[in-house]
Amino acid sequence: MLAAGVAVLAFVPTVSHLGPEIGDLPGRPAGTSGAVIGPALTLALCLPLAVRSRWPAVCLLTIGGAFAIGQVLGYPDTFSKVGLLLALYSAGAYLARFRRVVGAVMTVGCVVLAIVLYGLGSPQRFLDYLVFYLLMVVIWLAGSGVRRWRAEQAERERLTAEVATAAGR
């Protein structure tokens, strides 16, 4: 439902232009290739959210790649770019294995994206990229906090059931 909701909002004119952005490259002129690539990037930014709890790493890496491609090609902002933030949170909340690997890949990806955008003439500076990266880290940590809280809650419930079983004996 979340993936469908973000996809629909990405095409609603009132909110379609809202979303996170970094780089501030000049907009790409809408041509025949833009009529195909733009909507494809929009869908790639939101449809993977459908599998965010089952395959959080795949979701995050797919959406992160689509976000980076959209920024490098200078496609205009769409609401679907919110999918990056949702995928980061979901990866923090649901990713149990390979957390460090995915985190390292995303960090390297951010650095490479910043270098490429700067090389393409982005007016933003180091501090802008750093703040964007730190915002992504905070969102990831919020998801990690929820994951940790759920694990602690499950452990408390297990211990409560164990104590109740022992008391019943």
Automatic annotation (TrEMBL):
InterPro entries, sorted: DUF7134
Residues in DUF7134 domain copies: 31-148
The lineage's top-level taxon is Bacteria
Q: Which residues cross the membrane?
A: 34-50, 57-73, 79-96, 101-120, 126-146
Taken from the record, one Pfam family name reads DUF7134
Membrane among the record's keywords?
Answer: yes
Arranged from A to Z, the UniProt key words for this protein are: Membrane, Transmembrane, Transmembrane helix
Is the Nucleotide-binding keyword given for this protein?
no
User: What name appears for this protein in its UniProt entry?
Assistant: DUF7134 domain-containing protein
Species in which this protein is naturally found: Pseudonocardia parietis
